[in-house]
Amino acid sequence: MKEPLDSMYHKFVSEQVDIVGLYPLICLAEAEDGKIDYMSLAFGGPEQATLVYQTVTRHFLESRPPTRRLIFGLDRFLRPDQDLGPGIDSVVSVQHFDADRFAHCGRCYRPWRYGIIPYKSKEPIEVQDLAQRRMERGDIG
Predict the structure, then answer these.
(1) CA distance linking residue 126 with residue 124, whole number of Å
(2) CA-to-CA distance for 116 and 21, rounded, in angstroms?
(3) What is the spatial distance between Cα 67 and Cα 74, in angstroms, rounded to a whole number?
(4) Does the structure show a pLDDT above 60 at 129?
(5) Do 131 and 118 contact (CB within 8 A), yes or no?
(6) Confidence (pLDDT) at 105
């Protein structure tokens, strides 16, 4: 059985994140035919985050066969008042599109889910499994 896209993304993030964070950013897209595209999104800093959204949206709209699922994230520092646990000082804010969620929602328009993957940037990284379990259950989003 093929690994779900969100699990693949979590694995990529946990293998790529280091003490300076997640760079370049990672985007995975699954087409209707099951083919997975991997994109590395390099940009100049927080002020250019809009370019990430434009790049992902362009891929999403122009891909043939059409994109069925897409997941990407932006690396973010936490503010002092945002406490996610001991030593957690950064997150990857994740955005996950799933066309099947749109098709099964009926009247609502909820194909996008949002979440975070918290991590510690001041020491060797171990992405927390709690965030992955919450994302898989749909608690985040």
Answers:
(1) 7
(2) 14
(3) 20
(4) no
(5) yes
(6) 57
Bridge partners (DSSP) listed for residue 71? 28, 96
Beta-carbon contacts of 70 under 8 Å, excluding residues fewer than 6 positions away, are 27, 28, 29, 30, 56, 59, 60, 96, 97
Q: Could you report the per-residue pLDDT of 19-59, keeping only the tens digit for each? A: 778 878 889 999 888 899 888 887 766 677 778 778 887 77
- pLDDT exceeds 70 at position 117: yes
Q: What is the count of structural domains for the chain?
A: 1
Amino acid 60 reads F
Task: Give, for 122, the enclosing helix (H) or strand (E).
Answer: none
Q: Which domain holds residue 50?
A: 5-137
CA distance 4 to 23: 23
Q: Which residues contact 46 (CB under 8 A, 6 or more apart)?
A: none
> What are the CA-CA distances from residue 27 to residues 30, 55, 90, 108, 113 (Å)?
10, 10, 19, 26, 15
Closest Cα partner for 14 from 117, 135, 133, 103?
117
Which token pair is 138? 């749909």
